[in-house]
Design brief:
CATH architecture: 3-Layer(aba) Sandwich
Distance between the termini: 48 Å
Strand order of the largest sheet: 3-2-1-4-5
Structural class: alpha/beta
Number of helices: 6
Bound molecules: coenzyme A
CATH superfamily: HUPs
Number of strands: 5
Number of domains: 1
CATH class: Alpha Beta
Length: 159
Protein backbone atom coordinates (compact mmCIF):
# COMPACT_ATOMS: atom_id res chain seq x y z
CA UNK A 1 0.00 0.00 0.00
CA UNK A 2 1.24 3.47 -0.86
CA UNK A 3 1.97 5.43 2.27
CA UNK A 4 0.73 8.98 1.84
CA UNK A 5 1.19 11.16 4.89
CA UNK A 6 -0.07 14.62 5.78
CA UNK A 7 1.96 16.90 8.02
CA UNK A 8 -0.44 19.70 9.04
CA UNK A 9 0.37 22.89 10.90
CA UNK A 10 0.10 26.63 10.89
CA UNK A 11 3.73 27.16 9.82
CA UNK A 12 3.79 30.84 10.86
CA UNK A 13 6.54 30.60 9.76
CA UNK A 14 8.02 27.19 8.94
CA UNK A 15 11.14 26.61 11.09
CA UNK A 16 14.18 24.34 11.08
CA UNK A 17 12.29 22.12 13.55
CA UNK A 18 9.44 21.63 11.09
CA UNK A 19 11.99 20.91 8.33
CA UNK A 20 13.65 18.27 10.50
CA UNK A 21 10.29 16.48 10.91
CA UNK A 22 9.47 16.80 7.20
CA UNK A 23 12.84 15.33 6.17
CA UNK A 24 12.34 12.38 8.53
CA UNK A 25 8.79 11.84 7.26
CA UNK A 26 9.92 12.02 3.63
CA UNK A 27 12.24 9.08 4.29
CA UNK A 28 9.51 7.01 5.93
CA UNK A 29 6.58 7.61 3.58
CA UNK A 30 6.09 7.57 -0.20
CA UNK A 31 4.54 11.05 -0.27
CA UNK A 32 4.35 13.75 2.38
CA UNK A 33 1.81 16.53 2.02
CA UNK A 34 2.72 19.57 4.08
CA UNK A 35 -0.68 21.11 4.77
CA UNK A 36 -0.72 24.77 5.76
CA UNK A 37 -3.81 25.39 7.89
CA UNK A 38 -5.79 28.61 7.78
CA UNK A 39 -5.66 28.76 11.63
CA UNK A 40 -7.49 32.09 11.79
CA UNK A 41 -7.86 31.59 15.55
CA UNK A 42 -4.08 31.98 15.91
CA UNK A 43 -4.14 35.38 14.17
CA UNK A 44 -1.06 34.54 12.08
CA UNK A 45 1.66 37.06 11.19
CA UNK A 46 1.83 35.70 7.63
CA UNK A 47 -1.42 35.12 5.77
CA UNK A 48 -2.22 31.68 4.40
CA UNK A 49 -0.93 32.43 0.89
CA UNK A 50 2.36 33.77 2.29
CA UNK A 51 2.84 30.75 4.56
CA UNK A 52 2.12 28.45 1.62
CA UNK A 53 4.54 30.29 -0.63
CA UNK A 54 7.36 30.41 1.93
CA UNK A 55 6.94 26.72 2.76
CA UNK A 56 6.96 25.83 -0.95
CA UNK A 57 10.24 27.74 -1.43
CA UNK A 58 11.88 25.91 1.47
CA UNK A 59 10.67 22.45 0.45
CA UNK A 60 11.12 22.58 -3.32
CA UNK A 61 14.22 20.39 -3.09
CA UNK A 62 12.50 17.33 -1.61
CA UNK A 63 10.91 15.41 -4.46
CA UNK A 64 8.27 13.45 -2.53
CA UNK A 65 7.01 16.47 -0.55
CA UNK A 66 4.02 18.51 -1.74
CA UNK A 67 2.79 21.70 -0.11
CA UNK A 68 -0.80 22.88 -0.07
CA UNK A 69 -3.08 24.97 2.11
CA UNK A 70 -6.42 24.03 3.57
CA UNK A 71 -9.41 25.29 5.43
CA UNK A 72 -11.79 23.13 7.41
CA UNK A 73 -11.29 19.71 8.92
CA UNK A 74 -8.02 17.85 8.52
CA UNK A 75 -9.87 14.54 8.11
CA UNK A 76 -11.69 15.96 5.08
CA UNK A 77 -8.38 16.96 3.52
CA UNK A 78 -7.01 13.47 4.21
CA UNK A 79 -10.04 11.90 2.51
CA UNK A 80 -9.78 14.26 -0.49
CA UNK A 81 -6.06 13.58 -0.88
CA UNK A 82 -6.30 9.82 -0.27
CA UNK A 83 -3.89 10.10 2.67
CA UNK A 84 -3.79 7.38 5.32
CA UNK A 85 -1.34 8.86 7.85
CA UNK A 86 -1.08 12.11 9.81
CA UNK A 87 2.40 13.09 10.96
CA UNK A 88 2.79 15.30 14.01
CA UNK A 89 5.99 16.45 15.67
CA UNK A 90 6.27 16.03 19.43
CA UNK A 91 8.97 18.20 20.96
CA UNK A 92 8.35 17.47 24.62
CA UNK A 93 5.89 15.96 27.07
CA UNK A 94 4.07 19.29 27.00
CA UNK A 95 3.07 18.67 23.37
CA UNK A 96 2.01 15.10 24.02
CA UNK A 97 -1.31 15.55 25.81
CA UNK A 98 -2.78 17.87 23.16
CA UNK A 99 -1.43 15.70 20.35
CA UNK A 100 -2.94 12.50 21.77
CA UNK A 101 -6.27 14.26 22.18
CA UNK A 102 -6.20 15.52 18.59
CA UNK A 103 -5.16 12.09 17.28
CA UNK A 104 -8.03 10.51 19.20
CA UNK A 105 -10.62 12.91 17.82
CA UNK A 106 -9.32 12.52 14.28
CA UNK A 107 -9.51 8.74 14.69
CA UNK A 108 -13.11 8.99 15.86
CA UNK A 109 -13.97 11.00 12.76
CA UNK A 110 -11.92 8.82 10.39
CA UNK A 111 -10.91 5.46 11.92
CA UNK A 112 -8.70 4.42 8.98
CA UNK A 113 -6.48 7.50 9.45
CA UNK A 114 -3.58 6.88 11.83
CA UNK A 115 -1.43 9.52 13.52
CA UNK A 116 2.31 8.96 13.72
CA UNK A 117 4.42 11.06 16.10
CA UNK A 118 7.99 11.96 15.25
CA UNK A 119 10.47 13.77 17.48
CA UNK A 120 12.77 16.44 16.06
CA UNK A 121 16.50 16.50 16.73
CA UNK A 122 17.09 17.75 20.28
CA UNK A 123 18.62 21.01 18.98
CA UNK A 124 15.09 22.00 17.84
CA UNK A 125 13.22 20.81 20.94
CA UNK A 126 12.67 24.33 22.34
CA UNK A 127 11.83 25.95 19.04
CA UNK A 128 8.40 27.30 18.14
CA UNK A 129 7.12 29.71 15.53
CA UNK A 130 5.83 32.04 18.26
CA UNK A 131 9.29 32.30 19.85
CA UNK A 132 10.92 32.91 16.45
CA UNK A 133 8.45 35.74 15.75
CA UNK A 134 9.01 37.18 19.22
CA UNK A 135 12.80 37.12 18.95
CA UNK A 136 12.63 38.76 15.50
CA UNK A 137 10.16 41.39 16.74
CA UNK A 138 12.67 42.40 19.42
CA UNK A 139 15.54 42.62 16.97
CA UNK A 140 17.13 39.27 17.84
CA UNK A 141 18.93 37.02 15.39
CA UNK A 142 16.76 34.15 14.13
CA UNK A 143 19.16 32.90 11.47
CA UNK A 144 19.91 29.75 13.49
CA UNK A 145 16.25 28.80 13.71
CA UNK A 146 14.78 29.32 10.24
CA UNK A 147 16.01 29.05 6.63
CA UNK A 148 17.42 32.27 5.15
CA UNK A 149 14.37 33.08 2.97
CA UNK A 150 12.18 32.90 6.06
CA UNK A 151 14.53 35.18 7.99
CA UNK A 152 14.36 37.70 5.12
CA UNK A 153 10.55 37.45 4.99
CA UNK A 154 10.19 38.03 8.75
CA UNK A 155 12.52 41.03 8.67
CA UNK A 156 10.57 42.50 5.75
CA UNK A 157 7.20 41.80 7.38
CA UNK A 158 8.19 43.36 10.70
CA UNK A 159 9.68 46.39 8.96
N1 LIG B 1 9.72 22.40 15.38
C1 LIG B 1 9.42 23.63 15.73
N2 LIG B 1 8.21 24.00 16.15
C2 LIG B 1 7.27 23.08 16.17
C3 LIG B 1 7.50 21.76 15.81
C4 LIG B 1 8.80 21.43 15.40
N3 LIG B 1 9.12 20.20 15.03
N4 LIG B 1 6.36 21.07 15.95
C5 LIG B 1 5.44 21.93 16.39
N5 LIG B 1 6.00 23.14 16.53
C6 LIG B 1 5.35 24.33 17.04
C7 LIG B 1 4.77 25.18 15.99
O1 LIG B 1 5.70 26.12 15.52
C8 LIG B 1 3.64 25.82 16.72
O2 LIG B 1 4.13 26.92 17.41
P1 LIG B 1 3.26 28.19 17.59
O3 LIG B 1 2.02 27.77 18.32
O4 LIG B 1 4.17 29.03 18.35
O5 LIG B 1 2.94 28.71 16.23
C9 LIG B 1 3.22 24.79 17.75
O6 LIG B 1 4.29 23.93 17.86
C10 LIG B 1 2.07 23.93 17.35
O7 LIG B 1 1.73 24.26 16.10
P2 LIG B 1 1.43 23.39 14.86
O8 LIG B 1 2.21 22.16 14.80
O9 LIG B 1 1.50 24.29 13.68
O10 LIG B 1 0.02 22.99 15.19
P3 LIG B 1 -1.14 23.94 15.32
O11 LIG B 1 -1.65 23.74 16.69
O12 LIG B 1 -0.88 25.32 14.87
O13 LIG B 1 -2.03 23.29 14.18
C11 LIG B 1 -3.64 21.86 13.28
C12 LIG B 1 -2.90 22.35 14.50
C13 LIG B 1 -3.67 22.86 12.14
C14 LIG B 1 -2.97 20.59 12.80
C15 LIG B 1 -5.04 21.55 13.78
O14 LIG B 1 -5.57 22.72 14.38
C16 LIG B 1 -5.96 21.11 12.68
O15 LIG B 1 -5.94 19.97 12.29
N6 LIG B 1 -6.78 22.05 12.19
C17 LIG B 1 -7.77 21.76 11.17
C18 LIG B 1 -9.16 21.73 11.79
C19 LIG B 1 -9.42 20.39 12.42
O16 LIG B 1 -9.43 19.36 11.78
N7 LIG B 1 -9.70 20.44 13.73
C20 LIG B 1 -9.99 19.25 14.49
C21 LIG B 1 -8.74 18.61 15.04
S1 LIG B 1 -9.16 17.20 15.97
Amino acid sequence: MTKKAIYPGTFDPITNGHLDIIRRASELFDTVIVAVAQSSGKNPLFDKAERLNLSQQVLSGISNVEVLSFDGLLVNLAADEGANIIVRGVRSIADFEYEVQMAGMNRRMMPELDTVFLTPDSQWADLSSTLVRDIARHGGDVSGFVPSNIETAITKKLG
